[in-house]
Amino acid sequence: MKRLLIVLIITPLLQINLFAGEGMWLPLFLQALNEGEMQSMGMKMSAEDIYSVNKGSLKDAIVHFGGFCTAEVISGSGLLLTNHHCGYRQIQSHSSVDNNLLKDGFWADGTQEELPNPGLFAKFIESIEDVSIPALAGVTEAMNAKERQSIIDKNIVEIRSKYDLKEFEEITIKPFFHGNQYFLFKTVSYYDVRLVGTPPESIGKFGADTDNWIWPRHTGDFSLFRIYAGPNNEPAAYSPDNKPYTPKHFLPISLDGITEDDFTLIFGFPGRTNEYLPSNAIEQMVEKTNPAKIAIRDKALKIIDKYMRADEAIRLQYASKFASVANYWKKWIGESQGLKSSGAVAKKKAFEKDFQSRVNKNPSQKEAYGDLLNQFEKEYNSIGDLAYANDYFSEYIRNVELLKTANYLKTLAKNQKAGNQEKYNSFKKRLTPVLIKFYKDYQPSIDQEIFAALSQMYFENVDSKHINPAAKEKLLRNGNSYEKFAASIFGQTFIKDESKMMATLDLPMDEAVKTIEADPLFQYLNEIADYHKEKVGIPKNEIQSRIDVLMRKFMKAQMEVFPDEKFYPDANSTMRVTYGQVKGYEPRDAVHYNAQTYLDGVIQKYVPGDYEFDLPKKLISLHEQKDYGQYAQDGKIPVCFLGTNHTTGGNSGSPAIDAYGNLVGLNFDRVWEGTMSDFNYDPSICRNIMVDTRYILFIVDKFAGASHLIDEMKLVRPKSAPVISKPATKVMDSKLKNKRRRKGVPRESKHVMPETQGASGGGY
Ligand code: ARG
Ligand code: GLU
After folding, report:
1. Considering 538, 554, 570, which residue would you say is the last residue of a domain?
2. 118 and 238 in contact (C-beta within 8 Å)?
3. Are residues 507 and 614 in the same domain?
4. How far apart are CA 43 and CA 659, in angstroms?
5. Is 85 a catalytic residue?
6. Residue nearest ligand 1's atom 5 by CA
7. What is the rounded CA–CA span in Å between residue 650 and residue 590?
8. How remote is the CA of residue 669 from the centroid of ligand 2, in Å?
9. What is the bridge-based pairing of β-strands 663-670 and 688-692?
């Protein structure tokens, strides 16, 4: 891997251990690139067991959950495991004051009680192919970005046309390595995905924002869904007649869990990383853009927090919004600190020096790449202020709820201007439920205070040449007081008022837009937004597209200049494998973190009545009585653990798989000090956080009493009787299993299926 070179020269032996962990690998190249290293780290499976197009493999148990998270199949009847925070919206949508699934949890007592979720899908990967050659056919270096793209677009249409797709099958073709390669993903999606179970928030979101991105962690961040299929197990839209899906493979669950240094593999759909950027980009992020984004959110969060603490009703209204603003605010702070303390810029600079001197020694490389770093320097110098103004502007709009809402109205006005009644109607139809939800949890007075504060930050911290002078004049007319300015705009706007808003939308299109355009807040948004687009957005995008071209060349150059290195493509929401080991870490001098937390630690954090750290009585009493069933290790219930697996947003809900192919954990977060791994993976400090499966089983069985779900799963003890959990094509009929249960086979002992060599590769 790129930065590894420097270390490699100094300490050739240390390198393997130091860097094992970095990388989000394409499943189809595991055998060529990773299998050896994975096995040397303790893995007992082959690459073919993980990803195969010819036979069942681990990949057949992994789904892209709703397109934003990962989930995995854990029973022969399509039971799906993902995070609580991934299923949050569905759980919330089934909740009401009288039937609050978020607060009380939910456990369907049999399939007839499982709750459908319109729109939610589970997408399997059927196959992955390298289509770089046909996708890039006819493309030359001399072409400009536009010519190049139009050829690629045509090639992609051509590639697609060769596939005969069944209903619910899709083809996705995406660029990799910054446009140097293209891969095709053939997928099949199941659209009937029902909610099966969830712990209460006091377990599933225990520690909430205070503990978010933090180790030691004690959150049971999981929920259970089930995939349903139509006739013949085929994908189908929701129907009450659909039956639980029979998977090609499901993950057995290990009761033996993990210990420090155990091999772990994470399979999932990481969203976005940028590991190959030049030092200038990182410098700009650390010095300019991250601090700006953090400062704006910091301000907004402080105001919301003040009101949330003073009023319980407001706390309920704002908790979820607060969490979503706070999530990346906190991440960016950790990321900036990590980039600084790990010397990421200096490391990149040292790498670039090495790169340049190698390039200079090779005439053809010098010709092709000799000037790349200079060009980056030039482009980043000119994009700096624009990137800053752009981030400032978008955070300003994002954090003032009414500006964000007015922004939707711009789309209505645009459709009206284009005379497109149909588009106007369809956008209005989609907007209405969004607005209803927005007003339900909206407090104009809080928003007004945020508007005043963020307007002040925007006017004071963004170069005046990037802000419309007309907006500034409005402020001056209000005595140069941001409070008066905010009071005046909020006093007049109808957008803050639900009934006026709905009445306006009920008007015929032209009249509605006339009313919208007469609104002072809408006018203010247009003034700043149009000016911003012209002075910041467009010029910034022009530079960015030149940087993209440089990036494509730089990526290619790195691969050519260091031909012996292994490169992994940046994350782009496609299926990846990452692997590492269970490990603690040292966040700062004299502090060591263990890799595992226990239920005792959950109880230590308990604050009765607190909105983040309250606990259900039942959990406390299970702990008091040490009623742990088969899920304890050395008399304690494991809760969360750490690994060196390289993950990012989108890996939430990803399975952590042991050396044999069994589920040992559920990925849901990273440690704060290591969130920089999106740009600079540092093995000494980058850790992913997983819920231990034994905690999940304990909660399902002992806390919720949902032992029928445990019966569906396949619990194994690989450490006592190791067997590679080879995917099978035949799975045991779940009805048959249920029948057996009803015959009164004692439950707890029966859950563990004795593992023998014969069981592997057969049926479950
Ligand atoms: N930090 C995790 C992620 O990026 C968890 C977020 C959900 N939890 C929360 N407390 N906001 O998605
Ligand atoms: N919580 C993140 C998610 O929702 C995963 C944590 C991370 O960014 O690594 O995908």
Report:
1. 554
2. yes
3. no
4. 4
5. yes
6. 669
7. 33
8. 5
9. antiparallel
CA distance 159 to 134: 7
Catalytic, 241? Answer no
Task: Say yes or no: 398 and 487 in one domain.
Answer: yes
Are residues 546 and 418 located together in one domain of the fold?
yes
> Out of 85, 178, 218, 466, which one is annotated catalytic?
85
Question: Is residue 668 in contact with ligand 2, taking CB distance under 6 Å?
Answer: yes
**Ligand 1 centroid, distance to 212 Cα (angstroms):** 6
* Domain extent at residue 313: 279-554
267 lines ligand 2 (CB under 6 A): no
Burial tier of 49 (Cβ tally within 10 Å: 0-12, 13-18, 19+): buried
Helix (H) or strand (E) holding 270: none
Q: Is residue 479 part of a domain?
A: yes
| The ligand 2 atom nearest the CA atom of 653 | 10
330 CA closest ligand 1 atom index? 1
pLDDT at position 98:
87
Tokens of 708: 């029928």
Q: Is residue 14 part of a domain?
A: no
Q: Examine the domain organization and report whether 533 and 585 are in the same domain.
A: no
Q: Are 595 and 530 in the same domain? A: no
Counting the structural domains of the chain, the total is 2
Q: Is the CB of 212 under 6 A from ligand 1?
A: yes
Q: Are 395 and 441 found together in one domain?
A: yes
Residue 745's pLDDT is what? 33
For 292-340, how does the pLDDT look when each residue is reduced to its tens digit (9 = 90+)? Answer: 999 999 999 999 999 998 988 898 889 889 999 999 999 999 999 999 9
Atom index in ligand 2 nearest the CA of residue 652 equals 10
To the query of whether residue 262 is one of the catalytic residues in this protein, the response is no
Let me know if residue 695 belongs to a domain.
yes
535 and 626 together in one domain: no
- Helices 290-310 and 312-341 sit at what angle, rounded to 10 degrees? 150
Q: Is the pLDDT of residue 764 over 70?
A: no
Is the beta carbon of 207 within 6 A of some atom in ligand 1? no
Same domain, 631 and 488: no
- Give the span between the Cα atoms of 321 and 65, in whole angstroms: 22
Say yes or no to pLDDT of 16 above 50: no
**Ligand 1 contacts CB of residue 468 (under 6 A):** no
In a domain, 380, yes or no: yes
Pick the ligand that lies closest to the CA of residue 272.
2
